[in-house]
Amino acid sequence: VLLVATKDALYGLSPEGQEVWKADDIENIKEGNLDIIENTPYIVLVKSGILKGTNKVVDVVTGKTIFNSADNGMANVTKRLYLSKSNKLIFYGGSKNGTLMLLMVDLSTGQKVWEQTKIFEKNSEQIVSEAGELNDAVLIATNKRIYKLNKATGEEMFNVDMKSDMPVLAPKKK
Q: What is the pTM of this model?
């Protein structure tokens, strides 16, 4: 499916140039507002700069909006973590009342699996890598800790403090 954005809508076109779908609730999309989730049929449309603001997950085969972060209590998104084994996406950002939150979505159904607002201590704690995925858990590394979260509920199973200081080189000997 070829994506074509106009002022009025986002279109999915067949290789022959025929309209497969039209999403007229998505307008004025620029290339910088589109993020492809590699090896999936999903794209993320970001409404105000890369990652920030509203994130809409769209299935490019059908044109269907799978998930909209704004409709699920998020005021901004600063990071997305795709879990390929389970086809889930974790959004990290701020809620409408300013609380840091993680939110997991099942991309097969578009349903929110869980929401977690009690993990990170302050805005200074930031996710620093992709998520690790185990059968029953998700591993998330921040600049302060590594967390193991229950994949089904989002509850913290445990965390380990981590130093993220840059290594210091020894002075050169003369």
A: 0.84
Where are the strands (E) in the chain, listed by range?
Answer: 2-5, 10-13, 19-23, 34-36, 42-46, 55-59, 65-68, 74-83, 88-95, 100-106, 111-116, 132-133, 137-141, 145-150, 156-161
- Surface-to-core class of residue 92, CB atoms within 10 Å of its CB (0-12 exposed, 13-18 middle, 19+ buried): buried
Residue 73 in tokens:
């209590």
CA 123 to chain centre: 17
Separation of alpha carbons 173 and 147, rounded Å: 41
Q: What are phi and psi of 96, to 5 degrees?
A: -65, -20
Q: Can you give the pLDDT of all 174 residues of the chain as single tens digits?
A: 898 888 888 899 999 999 999 988 777 778 788 899 999 999 998 876 444 568 999 999 999 999 999 899 898 898 999 999 999 999 998 888 888 899 999 999 999 999 998 887 666 788 888 999 999 999 999 888 899 999 999 999 999 987 655 555 666 666
